[in-house]
Amino acid sequence: GPFPRDKALPPGAGRSYPQAMAPKELRTADWEALVFAPLWVYTAVAGAEGPAETSQFRRLSEELDDAQARFAGIGTAGVAVETLRGNLDALWATYQVDGVAPNRGLKRARGVLRRVPEPQREVFVGWLLELAVRIGAARRTAGDAAISDHERRAIRDVASWLGAQPPEAAR
Question: Structure pTM?
Answer without folding.
Answer: 0.83
